[in-house]
Structures are given as C-alpha cells and as structure tokens.
Amino acid sequence: MQNTLRTSVRFTGQGLHSGEAVELTIHPASADYGIWFKRTDILLGDRMVPARWDVVEQTALCTRIVNAAGVSVSTIEHIMAALAGTGVHNALIEVDGPEVPILDGSAADFVRGILKAGLIKQHRPVRAIEILKPVTVTRGDASATLTPADHMQIDFHIDFEDRAIGVQDKSLVMANGSFVRELCDSRTFCRQADVDAMHAQGLALGGNLENAVVVDGDKVLSPGGLRHKDEAVRHKMLDALGDLFLAGAPILGKYTGCRAGHSLTNELLRQLFATPGAFRVVECDSETAAILPGAGVHWAEIPAVA
Known about the structure:
InterPro entries: Ribosomal_Su5_D2-typ_SF, UDP-acyl_GlcNac_deAcase, UDP-acyl_GlcNac_deAcase_C, UDP-acyl_N-AcGlcN_deAcase_N. One of its GO terms (molecular function) is metal ion binding. This is UDP-3-O-acyl-N-acetylglucosamine deacetylase. By secondary structure, the protein is of the alpha+beta class. The chain has 2 domains: 3-121, 2-Layer Sandwich (Ribosomal Protein S5, domain 2), CATH 3.30.230; 127-301, lpxc deacetylase, domain 2 (lpxc deacetylase, domain 1, 2-Layer Sandwich), CATH 3.30.1700.10. It has 7 helices and 20 strands. The strands form 5 sheets. Strands 11, 12, 13, 14, 15, 19 and 20 form a 7-stranded mixed sheet that branches. It has a 5-stranded mixed sheet with strand order 2-3-9-4-5, covered by helices on one side. Strands 6-7-8 form a 3-stranded antiparallel sheet, with no helix packed on it. A hairpin with a 6-residue loop joins β6 and β7. α1 (77-86) packs across α2 and α1 packs across α5 (231-244). The two termini are 30 Å apart. The relative contact order is 0.21.
C-alpha cells in the first residue's frame, strides 16, 4: 500500500545558494496525491509546484522545479531522496521561500524527521515504473543509464582530480533500508576553487564547512573530516535517488551514473518517457513492495554519525 506521514514535521535552516532563512513543513496527503511543493510566501497566483520530471529546469548545481506561472522551488534533491528512501509516496511540502533548507548538507535530518513523525498505510496500491529496455544519455565523458532489473539498484562512478576525492565507485541495491543505512548521511561536496567561483557569481551564499564537504587537493577542509571514506560517491547516489523519484513513482531498474549530475539524470528521465516500450507502470504486489526503497525502514538504521 502507499504511505504518507502520520503527522506533519517542520524543518528550519537556510538555503544553500540563497543564504536566506527558510522554513519547510512536510504534511500528510491523500492516496494518489503524489509529492507537491507549495510556496507559502507567495500570496497571489499559482503557488503549487509538482515534484515531477517534466517541470525540472536544467541547472547544474541543484534540481529546480518550476510551474507554468514561473513559481519555483530549488535544491529539492535531498528531501526527495529522503521521501523515496523512507517510502513516502504522498506529501504536501510547504516552504516559505524559493529554496529547500540545506540543513547539514545530507538527507539525514529529513529522514530523522520523517521517521519521527511516522508513516501510515493508505488504501491504494503502490505503483512502480518497471524498466523494460535500456535507455542511455551521454554528455561528453558523463553518462546515465537505466536498464531492466527486478529491484532498484544504483551504480555510480566519479573521478575528480583532487586526491581527497579521486576515483570512487559504489553499487547498492536500494532495498531493505540501504538508503537510510548507507547513503542518507553523506553530505554535498565541492572543491574550494568551486566555492570561490560560486561566491563570485552570487551562489552558495548559505554554504559553509558545517553543511558541505569542502576539499582542496588532498585536504578535507570541513571540521571532523569525512563521514565515510567514499562520502562523495555516496552523496552522488543520494542525489540520483532524489532526482529519479521525480519520475512520480519508485523505479524498478538499475541506474548507472558515470560522472553524472542533476541535469543528466533529468535528461535520462525525459528520454525514458519519450522512448516507446522502454517502461511500464505496474501495481506492486506485497513481494515487490517489500523490496522498494523505504520498505521496512526503522529508526535504528540511521547512521550514528549523522
């Protein structure tokens, strides 16, 4: 069955790029509602924005969704990953600004809040998107691929010049709470040179060493260092799960990302839905639902480091 929150849960923080204070509340929603954002700071016009692949505006640094009236919400990937990874299918997310709070740079605080609020089952079956044939998009030396599988799996490869990151590879089947245990506490990361460039462009104004992993060559500048030796690739997988949940349902298939980012994953979804015979929507029986991301997750699986 589909799930929603048992009660509302509120978060406060600042936007990573805007630097502005923001308050966000996740509310329960009815079955088949999906995930929607509502801009509470906008008083006139359409302030509802669907969390959906076809309203994503192409940006390199985050995932930004925009409705037909031009109302947007950005940096949604971490909260979307938390919803997918805890098995929330229906929710209304109210936010009083244009950007989701960055919190500690990971999805752990969102996961903690969702699990504390608790989930309730709804009297409608979960639908999933089953991948039937391979779909790939490439851009230079970056690529993203979906291939058939009877579960959801994410494989990712990254390659950075900075020795503090370097080459990292990881593969995870996203079942049995693996997102919460393995990925949710991994923080966004960047190079010091990128931080300087973003600040010069008026971006990352809310970023600091407490909500991002900043590296410079072979040095990790953030206090306390890394939460995982391969935290960078784990965070890329976290982002991918959040961006893939914009498909509107969990995916049964294998995602392979090679140096991929937000815009390439969105391009992959667009290619998927434009390719005849590449997918089908299925109602999940109890056996399939039990291996979806978020099924059976409980509080004890949240990493202590977060």
